[in-house]
From TrEMBL, chains A, B, C:
Residues 342-352 have a biased composition (Basic and acidic residues). Residues 332-352 are annotated as: Disordered. Keywords: Metal-binding, Oxidoreductase. Residues 77-187, 206-312 form the Plastocyanin-like domain. Transmembrane segments: none annotated. This is Multicopper oxidase.
């Protein structure tokens, strides 16, 4: 683990409203206001239209050669802060480069002019210690004028990342931690109680391997939103135990005739993202549920973590602490062994 | 082929009703009854609600170090038996471990408590020669109370597999044959005449390479259901010649406005599954049609098989036997050769 | 670049109507007539039903051991010509093999008898210097008679390729350039102003690496159609900067309740294809926008190109020529470097 900084995975255990509270730092119009900070989980969004949000983000060096984005100096993290806006909003990001290397920020899913592309191709990056403003716009779906056809809006489970460090495609920045989640909501969408961001970046999740991968927590019955992102060069399949979702924009069926397949695993390959909402423990109860990459060599070498569904009152369900303890003593076999038998040892085979 | 047992691929050539007949062994309420054994292909399902089915499954050693699931002692196969239920049903599986290794059974798509997770994380596995009960529940879609949104039901083309042998993720069990298909039907779904299960597990299909891969058979016009599953570590793309389907829950369009793409190939990566129905030979006629992984190095080294569409009366169509003979004499080049010319030799280049 | 012929990438910069004009060579009923040659971009298709189109295609040797399909002798290209038909049409292709090797043509998405399968399995190929006729049919969706279910029609963003050269799966033919696009339109579909075909074949796009990859061009506001195809053995994710589409049959939402996710990147793995329409520069303005494989090692080694969105009047937008010049002087780092800094050199690191 020494090449990966001990940057707080706790920030991944995200309460939606605390994210919004964090995100409001430096905002002209606080996001928490536009999203309705007092709204209970399960409420629907009725934000005002076309807000311009101005934030400052910092790119900073982290230990062990890593890099991170943060909303305040000294607060860079991997992944970077989750950004949320509504369709129609504009996000104006003043990116302060606190490093002596070339970096940028490139979003998926939103509108930007060539000046905000974040690519060296368009000379859109921050040189060493430079500050640069990137503007991301969003929009609602609109009729094409051809029958029932609409051009898509911006709502989606997106992400942002460096596109300039190391190579013209940001391969260095990605390998070192410059990525984060971006959610664009459609008005009327159901709001979650909690949002989790899992970035599968080559053989790591949020730059960690088991048992140091994030433990995401919710109480039984809470509305939980997952945003899964991938970077690097490898094939991944994101699987969540005991929960499933519709393979569409939200994870919910849009009425009984929605033809979307129901899935509990989805391909998650470099540069891609998807998201969905589920009710924590619905139909299965509380417990320590695993999420992991289902590529066997990846799960075996540490691309796995725990989704802890507590009891509805927040207390620990029977067996969950034992499962967590077992996970932290987890031995990751590097190769399947036909003679394998149940193990109860607590050694950290290759995590020390 | 010596590392892969000669376990009967014939079981893959599955007539739906014979599967149900097999599956009824040990059932409190025979599946064939609940699905309507006399129903003709193309009928729709009108099963009773919320049946509890109790079955016993056995994990057994197979030749060459392989393992299999079976519904009776001595009947283990690779893949294991196809399990079918309806949304709302519960499947209670008494898993008898006839081996001296740790094994389990972990399903995709259905509901289970932590005790039935099948993972070492939750201490849910069979130790050597142990018997353990796993309970899988299912449910129908239900309104969320938010506008038109529904939480998904359990209907889908799923699968089950070991999650405890070799590693905590079942990598040993998967490599050795512990996997099978699981279909959860929605009431009202069209029933197929035949169901085929193809598991792409690293470089094998149902643990075989061409020309020993399963030959799936149907008569022209029969309603054929495919369940495709993947395991291991490799990228796959499942392609079926001369047939195509909607990329949604069933393979049929749900009315003329269903926006699903129509496809004849689909990514099939580790831990994933999908299914669809087609009418055998519709629009193209009978013949020996190929199904294969479209990753070139995979098809070239044996990830291919034949879907034999016979004439409507079950007789052999012109040219089909010749194609089958050709396939069995198929030379799989290990590398493309620019100087390649037509071959009629019958040698088994690397299958002997 | 010496192993890849200098076959005109300009043919990839396709104006729909010029494609149709080209495609009419040898047609019994000119395609341009059936599609309405005078129709403005954005019109919808009202072609007559069930046309039989007869074309002759040639397989020819190209420099450096490559092979290509063409609609006239001496005109073979990589990719081969884009073929377009309407649901209900039949395409009768007389394939003239001008090489002394075994080749064939195998389509995705359309109907064909075993004689037109294009596979050695069905003895469906051209021997050296042989001519053979392949017939592809198509059809509209049709009710199954079961509730609202329809069997799919043929409309889609498909492709064709060799299935006989090098190996029985055409691995040699694919590696050497024998592939092309096939679009089957549904009556009523919106017609594009321009169609671009991008084939990701192992580490190449249309058999080129950056900066020699195709530059696709359109004017701001034009309706642009992308057909993306993959071959070979590698994982790919196709990403287009500053544009996004619905992940469904057309790229447009089919009304406000269409549940399709909105995406700007999609997995594109061997044998697969997808397509979509976007309005060039909508919401983002003109400029040199990148399209690339988002697998970092692939974009870094040349799987990237430019989508040039000109001003509405066809003039060059500010900064675009500089971006193009920068791209042609692009240094593709073969490995990320933490110490990387902005570069302005014009050297061709590994393209000379």
């Amino acid at each position: 683990m020494d090449k990966h900084a001990q940057t707080g995975w706790l920030q991944n255990l995200v309460n939606r409203r605390s994210v919004l509270a964090t995100a409001t730092v430096g905002l002209a119009v606080p996001a928490a206001m536009t999203l309705g900070a007092a709204a209970p989980g399960g409420s629907t969004a009725q934000a005002q239209t076309g807000v311009v949000k101005k934030i400052t983000m910092y790119v900073e060096d982290l230990p062990n050669g890593l890099l991170g984005y943060g909303l305040e100096p000294g607060k860079a993290s991997i992944p970077g802060p989750l950004l949320e806006i509504y369709e129609g909003d504009t996000l104006e990001i003043t990116l302060v480069n606190k490093t002596d290397e070339r970096v940028s920020i490139h979003p998926h899913g939103v509108d930007y002019s060539v000046e905000s592309d974040g690519s060296p191709l368009n000379a859109s990056f921050n040189g060493p210690n430079e500050t640069r403003v990137y503007t991301w716009r969003s929009r609602e779906m609109a009729s094409t004028g051809h029958g029932r056809l609409y051009t898509p809006g911006s709502a989606g489970y997106w992400h942002y990342h460096d596109h300039a460090n190391g190579t013209d495609h940001g391969t260095g920045g990605l390998a070192r931690g410059l990525y984060g989640g971006l959610i664009v909501r459609r008005r009327g969408d159901v709001l979650p109680d909690r949002t989790f961001v899992a970035v599968l970046n080559d053989q790591f999740i949020n730059h960690k391997k088991a048992p140091d991968t994030p433990m995401f927590e919710a109480n039984l019955g809470q509305r939980v939103e997952w945003l899964a992102i991938a970077h690097g060069t490898s094939l991944h399949t994101f699987h969540l135990h005991a929960h499933r979702w519709a393979d569409n924009r939200t994870g919910y069926l849009e009425g009984p005739a929605d033809p979307s397949p129901i899935i509990d695993i989805k391909d998650l390959n470099p540069g891609s993202s998807f998201g969905f909402q589920v009710i924590a423990g619905q139909g299965v109860g509380p417990g320590a549920w695993m999420y992991h990459c289902h590529v066997q060599s990846h799960s075996d070498t540490g691309m796995a973590g725990i989704f802890l569904v507590r009891n509805a009152d927040g207390s620990m369900p029977p067996g969950a602490q034992e499962a967590i303890d077992r996970f932290h003593g987890h031995v990751h076999a590097s190769a399947p062994s036909a003679a394998d038998t149940p193990r109860t040892d607590e050694s950290h085979a290759h995590h020390n």
